[in-house]
Amino acid sequence: MKKETIDRILRFTADRDWDQFHTPANLAKSISIEANELLECFQWDEEHFDLEDVRDELADVMVYCIDMLDRLGLDADEIINAKMTKNEQKYPVEKSRGKATKYTRL
User: Fold this and answer.
1) 68 and 99 both lie in a single domain
2) DSSP characters for the chain?
3) Which of 29, 64, 86, 106 is 20 to 30 A from 72 via CA?
4) Over the chain (106 residues), what is each successive 10-residue block's mean pLDDT?
C-alpha cells in the first residue's frame, strides 16, 4: 500500500480525534464487524453480488487494519512475511497443492 494512502488514513483518524477510541480491542471488534459486513455481500448469492458494496466493505476492513497496525507499532510487510513463512512450513506445496485440507490433516 502506498505511503500516501496510509498517511491519509491516519490523518483522517487524527483530524477527528478518534485515536482515543482506537484501542486494540475496539479496533479488533471493528475489523470483525466490517468483515462480517463484507460477508453479508455474499449472504444469499455467492455469484451475483454488488461489486461496489464489496469494495466499500473490503476498504473498511483494510482501513481498520491500518489503524491497528499504527496503534500497535507494527509493520504490515514484516508481519505478513513472518506469517507467510509459517504458512509455507505448515502447507508444503507437495502436500497441499489442490487441497483445501487443514495442515493438521495433510
Assistant:
1) no
2) --HHHHHHHHHHHHHTT-GGG--HHHHHHHHHHHHHHHHHTTSS-SSS--HHHHHHHHHHHHHHHHHHHHHHT--HHHHHHHHHHHHHHHS-HHHHTT----GGG-
3) 86
4) 96 97 98 98 96 98 98 97 97 94 90
